[in-house]
Write a structure and sequence with these properties.
The structure is a homodimer. The first copy, chain A, is an alpha+beta fold and about 350 residues long. Chain A has two domains: about 10-145, PurM-like, N-terminal domain (60s Ribosomal Protein L30, Chain: A); about 165-330, Phosphoribosyl-aminoimidazole Synthetase, Chain A, domain 2, CATH 3.90.650.10. Helix content of chain A is about 35%, strand content about 25%. Chain A contains ten helices and 15 strands. Chain A is globular. Chain A starts with 11 loop residues before the first helix and ends in an 11-residue tail after the last strand. The interface between A and B is large, with 73 and 72 residues.
């Protein structure tokens, strides 16, 4: 069998020449990759910027994710943050640090994932620059930019008492997908459960839909601008969990968010059926699971919600700092992703 | 002795609350850290962007660099890229991935280094957002932004035959500083030379000036705008080596760059004296050493060079693709930093 070309076999310039044609182009590029820096259009005199790093181990496993999925997810999670500001994603820069024995094809497939995420989730957005480093730990840092087209940014601080709380996206799927990977995609080595590529193949063949949203999420990126145009008062990306992120919105807005039990139970029932788990398990996934990249937005009462958003609760007056998130009037503890605790 | 507080002891929100007050503020912030994304002013309807990742192992060693120096260097190397476009740095975003047992004080000192680099090298530039992740490998990714104030960006493609080639900064110091660290700051463990913190303390006490430019470089950031205003035709950051980066400028401009032997020997002589090394060693450092973050710029013939720039050569007609860099008419091989080969 012919050995794959490794990065350490190639000069840096050759690696870049093989990746560049696969990357998505940005409509906003004034000067693209290849110089010390890129120049990007910011037509209204401002730009939105967010950055996010994905690290092998805590954030993904190469035994589970394909390089294509990694590229897709790295783009998607950043595009969701831009969307959450009510902005249209315009460009990405990507810094990558990988071991020298990484096959060249891994980077090519990663570029394919970046490209298709941009094409599918945010047409016109593309990669305008990047950096390539060596590391023992496979690491991807994406910085994403967006354009507000003259609008005010949608922050998490604008929710007002009486607003309707609405959600776009599918809460709970990503964390149940991850739980499935831990349960069926690991084997025991020296008393520890470690990701297993062979078992993963079986899961991919048999249960692709149940892991797809975890491995390559497709957040409702275009609905960020839609929410802003529809008069949303606040908006945020739900990446750590519905309750934890809602508590942040409630705190920033000095209000509380009261979720509707029945609506959330509807999400949970769908999850229970799909994954064959108890309702209690899927309820926890809806409330406390991370990485779904739903958009949580508030709209003035009486406003017709834009297509794609579901009413999930109401903004009420905040009582105490510990009482920011409620489930039909009962306060619940916001729990979600914490990078150093998990 | 009281144990340092570790990151894993603190919730993410508390970590951020301790870091934020230490970070430099940006004059361009319209919406700062704390939301899904920041909003930055881009007054002329464009912005310059560059990204760079520093990884423990290939790019720095915690036994050698203090967290303050890491923060300083991460900012400085990105500010230099913005400057090389002829732009004024406006803002940074910083993504950090570190082990959970990292002391909280490490992040605080790193923030101090970021702040002082901005204050010293690019007043008005500040950190507008970031991300904090867990990783076994200490990794810092900085993305930097700049403002062109209506000017055309200075690319590496604008050099013209007859132009004067000029350099701002101190070539060779960083690589000789690194060589000193390898020679005197390592001890043998299992047959390999590994960085040694105790030996490092001795070097810091006795030879601070010889390692300072490697550990916390202070590139001539303000001279990027100065070069643009003085009519520079091309400009770039010298990060991989003078010959390798000059070959990239020459290739992009379809010309060749002929360096002046005597001027480069002047740099080398100064280095030889400072480090007590043979002239041949310091000549190699000037030509092939990386990480100095000098600015290499071309100016029309007859133009008075701005203060801070030294004439180092002339742009001549390119002959063949392999003949891009010459030393007084003799072609030399461009050699420098390659991330996966070293």
């Amino acid at each position: 069998m012919r050995r794959d070309t490794r990065l350490s076999d190639l000069p840096e310039g050759e690696i870049l020449r093989r990746i560049f044609p696969r990357l998505p182009e940005s409509d906003s590029t004034l000067l693209g990759p290849g110089d010390d820096a890129a120049v990007i259009a910011a037509p209204d005199g401002r730009f939105v910027v967010t950055t996010d790093m994905m690290v092998h181990g805590p954030d993904f496993r190469l035994e589970w994710s394909t390089p294509y999925e990694l590229g897709y997810k790295a783009a998607a999670s950043n595009l969701a943050d831009v969307a959450a500001m009510g902005a249209k994603p315009s460009a990405l820069v990507v810094a990558l640090a990988v071991p020298g024995d990484t096959p060249m094809s891994t980077l090519e497939q990663l570029a394919d994932g970046l490209r298709e995420a941009c094409q599918f989730l945010a047409p016109g957005c593309g990669v305008v620059g990047g950096d390539l480093s060596a590391s023992d730990t496979f690491t991807i840092a994406v910085t994403a930019f967006g354009d507000l087209d003259g609008r005010k940014p949608l922050t998490r601080a604008g929710a007002r008492v009486g607003d309707v709380v609405a959600l776009a996206g599918e809460p709970g799927w990503s964390s149940l997908g991850l739980a499935l990977l831990f349960a069926q995609g690991t084997s025991e080595v020296d008393g520890e459960r470690v990701p297993n590529a062979r078992l993963m193949k079986k899961i991919r063949d048999e249960l692709p839909n149940l892991i797809g949203r975890h491995l390559a999420p497709a957040p409702p990126v275009s609905l960020g601008v839609v929410a802003a145009q529809a008069g949303a008062t606040a908006c945020m990306d739900v990446s750590d969990s519905l309750t934890l992120d809602a508590s942040r919105m409630a705190e920033a807005s000095s209000v509380a968010i009261d979720f509707d039990h029945l609506v959330l139970d509807g999400f949970a029932a769908e999850l229970s059926q799909a994954y064959g788990v108890e309702l209690e398990v899927s309820r926890r996934a809806v409330l406390h699971g991370g990485e779904d990249h739903c958009l949580l937005a508030c709209f003035p009462p009486g406003e017709v919600l834009p297509a794609g958003f579901t009413r999930v609760g109401t903004v009420i007056a905040g009582r105490t700092a510990l009482d920011r998130v409620l489930l039909r009037g009962e306060s619940i503890e916001p729990i979600g992703w914490n990078p150093y605790a998990q």
